[in-house]
# Entry
Amino acid sequence: MARYYAFRGEYQKALEQAKQTLTLQVDPVPLHLTMYQIYKELGQEDSSFQYFLQWRSAFGEEVEVMEANYREFGWQRAAEKMLILLEEKSESNYIDPLHLALYAVHAEDFDKAMDYLEQAYDQKVPLLTSIGLETHWKPLFSNQRFKRLLSKMELSPAWAKFGGFY
# Structure
């Protein structure tokens, strides 16, 4: 229900619903994603970042590095450091290119983010089809490469613009 309200742009209702759902005995990982996105849309960066860390820690990422950098330098620099760490790890372990693209977007390296999204397309990563729905891809919605990628997946740019958190 929280995501429903968020997709409609009703962020306060979405936040109330997400908090209520967290009190239940449910897997919190999807809620952490939702709450990170809601707080980001509400401009509450610190809260957004804390839920982002909780969400990403579920994937075994070393979020302590990012947290330390966030406190000292902010979101962009923290994402840059985490991206470097994950790129180094990817030399010996598989790292989902969507994860790398996510950090590249937060680092505001949009060309690199697109490189990773195109790599995800080539690898047929299933969650790629959600890129028009998630707020972390929002900075790319007007990017021509992003629009071409949506077209290759037979998703219209209108779907990205009106189907996501707006």
Notes: The mean pLDDT is 87. The longest helix spans residues 75-89. Residues 47 and 154 are 35 Å apart (CA to CA). The two ends are 16 Å apart (CA to CA).
